Inverse folding.
């Protein structure tokens, strides 16, 4: 019992504090980068900066009034071409993506404005090929099952490892009721499941888009509480205790 009690954040050795602090700093920076990536991808799905319910719907359910090409050109790819060029590509998609118009009209725009990235980065669709563009020009049904499966398993494995170590460090915090501490540690895992599950539910029904936002917001808040509490108790709390003026 005494050995367990000694494992508290304020009383850790300096090397352990350095280890945990380094991890917290890198994880915190990673979470900020993840937020930035969401703003620049999903956050631009409706053509406006900032994550909204429409962004979530367009990303997972799709904008089924138009093609994925149209959604991208009016969203995250809006600044990559002139209004006239975007309208030419959108009209081509709406008219059925005819192969007869590919080489004389569409391909020159694609090669000049899109192929510099899409033809050389393997993770992106090679839009310099007609078959790829024809597929993108179909009605936008959001994320496909293959992509959802790949991203889901990466997030479930990767983020759960992050929350495990963040929770382990926070488990040494002092001043918390053990049940309150247990709930805070468990919350990120619960909201991660809600977040991933809501991707699939939104793919089937756009009404579930709110749960994506709730899930991401929930585990972000819990992780932030654990990260800042851990840093405070490792470094600030011991300093305050050491410099506290004894009462008369």
């Amino acid at each position: 019992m005494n050995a367990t009690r000694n494992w508290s954040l304020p009383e850790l050795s300096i090397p352990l504090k350095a280890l945990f602090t380094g991890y917290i700093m890198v994880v915190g920076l990673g979470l900020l980068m993840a937020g930035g990536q969401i703003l620049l991808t999903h956050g631009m799905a409706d053509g406006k900066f900032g994550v909204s319910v429409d962004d979530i719907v367009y990303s997972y359910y799709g904008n089924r009034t138009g093609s994925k090409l149209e959604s991208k050109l009016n969203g995250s790819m809006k600044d990559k071409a002139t209004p006239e060029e975007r309208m030419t590509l959108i009209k081509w998609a709406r008219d059925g993506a005819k192969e007869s118009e590919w080489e004389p009209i569409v391909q020159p725009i694609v090669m000049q404005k899109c192929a510099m990235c899409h033809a050389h980065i393997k993770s992106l669709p090679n839009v310099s090929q007609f078959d790829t563009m024809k597929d993108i020009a179909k009605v936008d049904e959001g994320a496909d099952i293959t992509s959802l499966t790949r991203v889901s398993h990466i997030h479930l494995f990767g983020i759960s490892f992050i929350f495990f170590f963040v929770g382990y460090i926070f488990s040494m915090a002092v001043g918390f009721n053990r049940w309150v501490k247990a709930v805070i540690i468990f919350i990120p895992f619960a909201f991660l499941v809600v977040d991933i599950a809501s991707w699939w539910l939104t793919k089937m029904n756009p009404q579930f888009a709110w749960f994506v936002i709730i899930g991401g917001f929930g585990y972000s808040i819990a992780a932030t509480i654990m990260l800042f509490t851990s840093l405070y108790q490792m470094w600030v709390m011991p300093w305050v205790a050491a410099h506290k003026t004894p009462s008369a």
Residues 16-42+143-240 form one domain. The first helix runs from residue 2 to 6. The chain is about 70% helix and 0% strand. The chain has two domains: 16-42+143-240, 63-136.
